[in-house]
Amino acid sequence: MLILELYVFVLAAFVGYMVISRVPPLLHTPLMAATNAISGISLVGSLIAAGGARNQVATLLGFVAVVCATSNIVGGFLITDRMLRMFRTGSGKREAGSAAAADRRQRVGRRSSDVPV
Fold first, then answer.
1. What number of other Cβ atoms are within 10 A of residue 69's Cβ?
2. What's the CA gap between 67 and 46, in Å, rounded?
3. Which of 93, 90, 49 has its CA nearest to residue 69?
4. Exposed, middle or buried, 62 (CB in 10 Å: 0-12/13-18/19+)?
5. Ramachandran angles phi, psi of 23, nearest 5°
6. Could you tell me the pLDDT band of residue 99, with boundaries at 50, 70 and 90?
7. Which of 23, 33, 50, 104 has the most C-beta neighbours closer than 10 Å?
8. 46: burial class by Cβ within 10 Å (0-12, 13-18, 19+)?
């Protein structure tokens, strides 16, 4: 039975790695938001487990689950915010760089017939 469980774990890890590695960078932020939502659901479940007061082991494991889920949610929001800041236009160098990039795109997009003689 242990071999079967190990096989399922290795297969799930491999499939998870292949799926995540093929996500285009544009979709990372929505994927992180969905992961934060799933972590929120696990936080609710861990709160229920910790507050059930069935025995001390269940309460302790529920507390550990609450700490892990909370740190996962906070870390996910921090990373998502950092990724979103990369796409914002700011002042200073970044704005000048984007204006220069827009100017280059305009020049590249011209046809030879559009250039004044």
1. 20
2. 9
3. 49
4. buried
5. -80, 125
6. low
7. 50
8. buried
* Per-residue confidence band for 109, with pLDDT thresholds at 50, 70 and 90: low
Taking residues 10-35, report their average pLDDT. Answer: 82
Reported pTM: 0.51
Alpha helices in the chain (DSSP H): 2-21, 28-51, 56-87, 93-109
Q: Is the pLDDT of residue 48 over 50?
A: yes
- How far, in Å, CA of 37 to CA of 31, rounded? 10
Q: Locate tokens 């992961």: which residue? A: 35
Query: How many residues are listed for the chain in this entry?
Result: 117
Quote the tokens at residue 7. Answer: 């096989």
User: What letter would DSSP give residue 53?
Assistant: -
